[in-house]
Amino acid sequence: MKRHSGWSLLVSLLVVLSLVGFAAAQQPKPGGTLRVAYESDVSGLDPHVSPGIQAWHVVGNLFNSLLTIDAELNYVPDLAESWDVLEDGKVYVFHLRKGVKFHDGSDFDAEVVRWNYQRIMDPAEKAFDAPYYSMVETVEVLDAHTVTFTLKHPSMTLLPVMAANRAGFLQISPASYTRWGKEEIRRHPVGTGPFKLGRWDQNHLIVLEKNPHYFKPGLPYLDRVELRVMKDGITRVTALRAGEVDFANAVPRESVERLDKDPHIRVLRGRETQRVTTVFNLRNPIFTDVRVRRALGGYGIDRQAIVKTALLGLGQPSWSFVPHGAKDHLDFGEDYPYDPEKARALLKQAGYDEKNPLRYSIMAHAAEAALPNIATILKTQYAKLGVEMTVEVIDRPIYLRRLTRDRDWEQGLIFTSAALDAYSISRALDTRVGNNTLNHQDKHVDALIDRMKEAATEEAFRQAGHDIQRYMVEHMMIADIASVPFLQAVRPQVQGYEHLHGFKIQFETTWLDKP
Hints:
Elements: E1 2-4, H1 7-19, E2 33-38, H2 53-59, E3 67-69, E4 75-77, E5 80-86, E6 91-96, H3 110-121, E7 136-143, E8 146-151, H4 158-164, H5 174-184, E9 195-201, E10 205-210, E11 224-229, H6 233-241, E12 247-248, H7 256-261, E13 266-268, E14 274-280, H8 290-299, H9 303-309, E15 316-317, H10 340-349, E16 359-365, H11 370-383, E17 388-394, H12 396-406, E18 411-415, H13 422-425, H14 443-454, H15 458-474, E19 478-484, E20 488-490, E21 494-495, E22 511-512
Parallel strand pairs: 2-11, 2-12, 16-17, 16-18
Antiparallel strand pairs: 1-5, 3-4, 5-6, 6-8, 7-8, 9-10, 10-11, 12-20, 13-20, 14-18, 14-19, 15-19, 21-22
Helix pairs in contact: 8-10, 14-15
C-alpha cells in the first residue's frame, strides 16, 4: 500500500517560499488587490466544459481538485488530505478534508466527488476530460470523507489526470448546478477555491474576491485579483512597466530582453513545458510516405536557427512530442540532425525532384506571434530541398475549425499548452477518442497509448511513454520543433507567487509587499 499524506503539502509550501525568492524573515502581508494584465477573456468558467487555456487558468483560483502539483511536478494534497494506492494501482482511496464549504455554503464531501465524476462522464455534458476517466469502473462512497475509485485495470494515469490535466479534477457545487442549470453554470462558478467570482465584464475585466472561509488556514492573502483583459502583448508589457498593473501574463518573448534590464521587473520563465510543433495531415497522400515525413519533419528543419531567430533564444530544439520540461522527455537530436542533402535524397526516393517538385501549403495563425515567422523560415529551409511551400496565415478561429473539423489542411503549425507527460498529450493522438489531430489510422499508436493506461508501476508507465515517443519520432508522425517556457512578469511588490510552468495560474499564496 502506498500512502500519500498532507505532510508533503507542508514540504511543498516551504519549497515554494524559497523558489519564488521572498525573504524568509518577511511575513506575508494580508490585503490588497493584485492587478493582472490578462491576455484574453473567457467564454465561460465551468471547469468541466468551458474551453480554452485562459479559462483553465482562471478556474484554478475558484475551484480545487483532490490533489494538485507543485513547482517540481510532484503530486500534493488539495481537497484530499491523503490517498492510498491499493491492489497494485487498481484501487485509489481518497481521504477528504473535513469542514470544507463551497462558496454557496454547501458542504464538500465524498458524495460531491462522486457527483462530479458522474457529471464528467455524462455524454450529454460533453466534458473534455471524460476520455481520461474511461478506465474507472466504479466510484464508491465509503463514508462522508472517504471515496474509492476502482479502475478496470491497474493504472498510473489517475493521479496525473486529477492533478494536472487541464486544471485537474476540479469540484463544483452540485447545489449551484441545480440552481443555475447546465447552460448558465458557466457564468456562476461555485467552487471551494481561495477566490470566488466577484464580477465579470466581458472583454474587459474579471474580478476574483477573497473567500473568507477558505479551508487552508490564513490563505489567501489578497483581498481580490483583477484580471484586466489586454489582448495585445505589448499593451500588457507597457502597463506593467508603467506600474498600471502588478503582474503580466503571457509575456511576448520579444519583450523579455527589455524586461530583464528593467530593475523594477522580474521575468518568470519556469520549465519548458509548451511546444511549437508541426503536424502532417496523414490522410493526405503526400504525407502517407514516411520518407517525405522524415525529410520534412526530421532532416529538413534547422531547429537551432528557428529557436534563435523566431523564438529569440527562449526555448530548446526538440524532436519528441513530449517537451523538455515535462516528465520523461527523450532527446532525438542525434537521430535527426539538420541535413538538407539527406532530406533532398529522401524526397527524390519518394519521387520528388527538380522535374517534379513537391508543392503544398502550411497553415498557421497569428495569435501566437512566432508562428507566422516560423512558417516563413520553414518555407526558406524547405526551398533548399526543392520544396515549393505556400504559407497560409489565417485567423485562429478559422484555423481551429480547419484543423479539427474541416480537416482540409496539409501541414500545420501548432503552439501548445503545457504538457505533463506523454499520456497527457495522447488524447490528440488516439484514433478512438479525442481529436486525432494527425488524422492517422495507425492502430499501433492506440496500442502504445493503452500500454501507458495499463502500466501498473511507475517504471512501466515511464517505459511506455518512452516507447511511444520513439515510435512517433521514428515514423515522424509529428515533428516537434522546440520546447518553450511559459512567460510571466511581475513587479517587486508581488511576493509568494508560485510559477507552475503554464499548467496552472494560482494566486492563493501571493501577497503584496506594499507599505
